[in-house]
Amino acid sequence: MSNFWGRIRGPPEMAFKKVFIVGVGQIGASVGLAIREKRLAREVVGLGRRRKNLALARRRGAVSVAIRLRSPADLRRIPFEREDLVVLATPVATIRRCLRFLSPIPLVIDVGSTKERIVQEAWRRRLRFVGTHPIAGTEKDGAGAGDADLFKGRLCLITPTGRTDRRDLGRVGALWRAVGAQVERISPARHDRLLSSISHLPHALAYSLTAAVAAQVGGRAMARYPLAGLRDTTRVAASPPSMWAEIFLENRRNVLRGLRFFDRELGRLERMIRTNDRERLLEWLRRAQRVRLRF
């Protein structure tokens, strides 16, 4: 044991024997690259369905070993140990399916964009679990988009409950800080309310705006005249649709609430334009601008 810890940086409480990353897309591959760069584990194992992506993750050094899973049920045959860490980096609905087949022996975290239902499933299965959400990433996908520096200076939300083991919580927080993230604790329910406004709603609007403009002028015209405003506003609509469909449905109550707020503001804008109310329109725009300039 002493030889093992001597080969890694940092104290034993923040490092792991093996790290198993289930899903080596952009976030999963970035976790693997960062952990290997900081030498926070003896071995990083990538698990996933797509052979090509697993091979790419191994070539890029995100994982040292790659294992193909045909389905989440294959997780039952992995010989996990107590000093191992399992990182669930799949789409959120798949995270919940993976939890059904995991052993209660290793420490398990996820990196999903929703939390409440995932945490509930983990406790139902009596797992050693800490929910986490690094607020990082781009619209790119796959192991080729992995970046060891992705989490540096970025916020990582950790969602403990009254059942979370304090030592496990400390190890997870130390891990995220070791790869450069700023850690903040938040309840699973508050996480989902907050993220529905600052992340899920903007993505929903980007997809909607893209569809609305395409319906008016057509996709070819959009591509031919890539004006900066449209390009910047709809950038995140290039994100993987399968991932965002699951996020919208997993957090549907909060997402629908956000859409109602947006619909109310859009209705105000429509009325001011229709009635030629320049004074109120200008104040509405200035108020929104002041908020935007704060960040």
Short synopsis of the structure:
The protein is 50% helix and 15% strand.
Notes on the structure:
This protein is globular. With 295 residues, the chain is an alpha/beta fold. Helix 4 runs parallel beside helix 5. An eight-stranded mixed sheet has the order 3-2-1-4-5-6-7-8, with helices on both faces. It folds into two domains: 185 residues, NAD(P)-binding Rossmann-like Domain (Rossmann fold); 103 residues, 6-phosphogluconate dehydrogenase C-terminal like domain (6-phosphogluconate dehydrogenase C-terminal fold).
Q: What's the tally of helices?
A: 12
What average pLDDT do the residues reach? 92
The CATH homologous superfamily of the largest domain is called: NAD(P)-binding Rossmann-like Domain
Biggest sheet: strands side by side, in what order? Answer: 3-2-1-4-5-6-7-8
Shape: globular
What's the alpha carbon Rg, rounded to whole Å? 21 Å
By CATH reckoning, the class of the largest domain would read Alpha Beta
Write out key terms for the chains shown.
single chain; 295 residues; alpha/beta; Rossmann fold; 6-phosphogluconate dehydrogenase C-terminal fold; 2 domains; eight-stranded mixed beta sheet; 12 helices
Strand-helix topology:
Layout: H1 2-6, E1 16-22, H2 26-38, E2 41-48, H3 51-59, E3 65-68, E4 85-88, H4 92-99, E5 107-110, H5 116-124, E6 128-134, E7 155-159, H6 166-178, E8 182-185, H7 188-217, H8 219-224, H9 228-233, H10 241-250, H11 252-274, H12 278-293
Parallel strand pairs: 1-2, 1-4, 2-3, 4-5, 5-6, 7-8
Antiparallel strand pairs: 6-7
Helix pairs in contact: 4-5, 7-11
